[in-house]
Structure formats: C-alpha cells, structure tokens
From TrEMBL:
Name of the protein: Tellurite resistance protein TerB
Pfam families: TerB
Regions that span the bilayer: none
Domain Co-chaperone DjlA N-terminal: 23-139
Length: 147
C-alpha cells in the first residue's frame, strides 16, 4: 500500500487518489509541517492524532496508526512541491481548505507560530491551490476555536 501511494505521489501525472490514500497523503503533509522547525515532539504527534481523528471520524488507535503510516510516507515522499501537487491534483478544493485548516491547527499546537512553520505554510497553501484569503480565513477559524 505504501509503495503504491509513493508511486502515485511521484508519477508525472498524479491521478485522483482513493479516499484512503488521500487521508494518508494529507496526514503525511501534517507530519511534514510539524517537522518543519526540526522539532517533532509528543504534543505535535498528539495534535496530529486528534486532528485526523476528528477530520476522519477515527478512534484514537486508528488515528495513531494512520499517523504512524504517514510518518513513513513523509520520510520517503518526494519534495514538498511534488508532494503537494499530487494532493492538489487528487483532492477536491473544499477538502484542501480543510487540510489548510488542519495544517494551521498543527502550526498553532504549541501556542506560537514558528518562522520555519510559517514559511512552509506560505509555500504549501499556494501549492495546494489555496489562495491567501482562504488560508488566512482557515487560520482565523483555528485561532477562534483556541480562544
């Protein structure tokens, strides 16, 4: 399964992803963002687990297993540009807005916006085909939920 997803992520013309692959790819993107500041701690892993559990209606054990599989994908996945292009081509726009919101949730998990995480978010949003306005609105929704 992982090799099939990696093959699809690196294909010259990414195809529409089945739901399970899209979940795995999007969770791997959360992992990549969490690692952007060279720190990937338990709080970030727990935030990813809660995010994917909520987003996909998973039990805690299933969310943890999805994250662990995503960690393996992230470690082997191509550069962020090709990775996000595959997601953009395989995931509907409304779902990509939800991904941006989940990404902001991970960025804000520790209570501050790290410069490296901000830089990666500025790169990821347009690569996913999400405009600045929608990304900012997603960030504000996350901040409002945290307030």
């Amino acid at each position: 399964m992982l090799s099939d997803l990696l093959r699809r992520l690196t294909a010259p013309e990414p195809e529409q992803m089945p739901d399970g692959d899209a979940r795995l790819a999007l969770t791997a993107l959360l992992v990549r963002l969490a690692k952007a500041d060279d720190t990937y701690d338990a709080a970030e892993r727990e935030r990813i687990d809660r995010t994917v559990a909520s987003r996909y209606g998973l039990a805690p054990d299933a969310a943890r297993q999805l994250r662990q599989e995503a960690e393996a994908i992230e470690a082997e996945a191509p550069d962020t540009v090709r990775f996000t292009r595959a997601i953009k081509d395989g995931v509907a726009y409304d779902d990509r807005i939800g991904v941006i919101e989940a990404l902001w949730d991970v960025v804000l998990a520790d209570g501050h916006r790290d410069e490296d995480e901000n830089a990666l978010m500025r790169q990821i949003a347009p690569l996913l085909g999400v405009n600045d306005r929608d990304s900012n609105m997603a960030r504000r929704r996350v901040e409002d939920r945290r307030a």
